[in-house]
Amino acid sequence: MTIETSKDAQAFSEFEHQGWQTVSGGYEQHFARLTSQSAPAVLDAAGVGRGMHVLDVCSGPGMLAQAALARGARVTGLDFSAEVVRIARRNVPHAEFREGDAQALPFPDDSFDAVVCGFGIIHVPDARRALREMHEVLKPDCRLAISVWETPSPANGFGLLYGAIQTHADPDVALPHGPDFFQFSAVEKLRAALEETGFSRIAVDHVEQTWEFTNPSGLVASFVEGAVRARGLLLAQTGAVREAIEQAVIEGMQQFRSADDAYRVPMPALIGSGAKD
Q: pLDDT category, 187, cuts 50, 70, 90?
């Protein structure tokens, strides 16, 4: 597998950094309740247990860090956004968080008993470099686990949103080039990426997650308020185009409506894990 990288790493990094400085509170409000659902499976895949020193790369608001602490681990978290680090320190005061680049981890080789990365590898310009960095700081015979979104389909939230965007939006808006957001979203591709970056004893597991809303407009609002790339694409459209996208998503949300009038949207994930020999 050829791992795709950004064609303009600096511009893409600046775009992502500015985005997370802006939407980190929205991510915590909207996405944390979704992505925290896969935290136990990520920690299981990395073999996290009591007394271990765990590195949480692209830590976000601290969901994985908090879950690892609950298992008796010691946690160091890293994120490149100062605002994200501030939120993580507030949420998880007993973990250590610092600013840093996933592509240049500021730790010695063979430092950690486990490395985890929750939905972060899809936000870096060079995922190959980031995965190799995680491999280097992991102790021999210990494990890494990362989570990514599954491939969009008509039966999940990403498929609903991006289907509406594909139908109605101008795809050629001026955003910095980033790697394919879903390049690791199939089992064989995630496995190949871990093999390519030096990991062995690889496993890839499917995890069901459900995003619940009380209003069908909540899906688009959550992306606008708490995402970076989807938000940038949506905000770059004309008002009329955004309205068409929102209306298409609202109509599509009806398939996820439950008898209690809640909208439960499937947002499945893959967890890839591997060991350092």
A: very high
Please name the helix (run of DSSP H) or strand (run of DSSP E) that holds residue 55, with its range, or none.
Answer: strand 53-57
**0.85 cut: is pTM over it?**
yes
How far apart, in whole angstroms, are the C-alpha atoms of residue 65 and residue 192?
27
Closest CA to 239 of 176, 174, 170: 170
- What is the spatial distance between Cα 171 and Cα 269, in angstroms, rounded to a whole number? 25
Distance CA 112, CA 53 (A): 5
The candidate with the shortest Cα–Cα distance to 83, out of 223, 218, 234, 226, is: 226
User: To the nearest whole percent, how much of the chain has pLDDT over 90?
Assistant: 97
Q: How far is residue 59's CA from residue 115's CA, in Å, rounded to a whole number?
A: 11
Please report, for the chain, the start and end positions of each structural domain, with discontinuous segments joined by +.
9-275
According to CATH, the topology of domain 9-275 is Rossmann fold (3.40.50)
Q: Which residues contact 206 (CB under 8 A, 6 or more apart)?
A: 150, 187, 268, 269, 270
Per this entry, what is the length of the chain? Answer: 277
**CB neighbourhood size of 94 (10 A):** 9
| Amino acid 258: pLDDT | 97
